[in-house]
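Tokens as discussed.
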């Protein structure tokens, strides 16, 4: 109930009025029944704008910490995240990834839409990075279609590390459903999982127009930080006259 209150009364109408998000391909999302919405991830605002363009609820998994913080702050946090269509990762699994897949399977078994970011984390530079194979495993285990999604412009509205950036009209594009039933029973074949994931990422790239980098986003972030640290170190260790020239 709180989800629909946020979507149609408290938050959704304001976002629609101010940002006027554009949408295409929404007819590819089934009116009923389960489906996986696999999207690129440019900003924390992605999980606000993508569900806003659909009449159905879209559920994501979120860090358990958002749901077990004590006190009044924790109560409001739990209410907001659960109301915004997020459920905690099921920590009964051996790993967070396994827990996320377990929670996702339950959502899909209930006939709902499940949203996932195959990159695993937000892009730090606007590029599209290599997808993790959890989305492929989930598709094969549940037998539901995967709908590629591209969200464009959210990194302008809310850039990484900032609460708000510049005004723009976000764009949400839904692609045609991808059917992987031909690989039924092969969810333990890592080559098949990689092939499926790459196919999904290709469709996301085609919809978003992003430059694709065949590297995991977490590794790319680490290398970027190392490069920035190295540049800062090189600059501080240079002689004073060279530092002045560099500035």
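Sequence:
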């Amino acid at each position: 109930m709180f989800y629909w209150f946020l979507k149609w009364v408290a938050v959704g109408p304001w976002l629609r009025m101010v940002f006027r998000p554009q949408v295409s391909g929404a007819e590819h999302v089934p009116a009923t029944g389960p489906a996986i919405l696999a999207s690129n991830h440019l900003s924390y605002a992605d999980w606000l704008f993508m569900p806003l363009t659909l009449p159905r609820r879209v559920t994501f998994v979120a860090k358990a910490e958002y749901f077990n913080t004590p006190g009044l702050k924790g109560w409001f946090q739990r209410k907001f995240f659960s109301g915004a269509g997020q459920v905690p990762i099921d920590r009964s699994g051996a790993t967070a990834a396994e827990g996320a897949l377990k929670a996702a399977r339950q959502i899909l078994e209930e006939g709902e839409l499940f949203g996932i970011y195959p990159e695993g984390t937000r892009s730090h530079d606007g590029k599209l990075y290599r997808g993790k194979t959890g989305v492929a495993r989930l598709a094969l285990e549940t037998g539901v279609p995967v709908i590629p999604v591209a969200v464009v412009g959210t990194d302008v509205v809310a850039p990484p590390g900032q609460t708000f950036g510049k005004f723009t009209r976000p764009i949400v594009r839904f692609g045609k459903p991808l059917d992987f039933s031909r690989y039924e029973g092969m969810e333990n074949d890592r080559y098949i999982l990689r092939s499926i994931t790459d196919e999904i990422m290709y469709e996301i790239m085609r919809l978003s127009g992003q430059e694709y980098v065949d590297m995991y986003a977490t590794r790319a972030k680490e290398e970027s930080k190392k490069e920035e640290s190295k540049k800062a170190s090189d600059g501080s260790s240079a002689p004073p006259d060279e530092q002045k020239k560099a500035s």
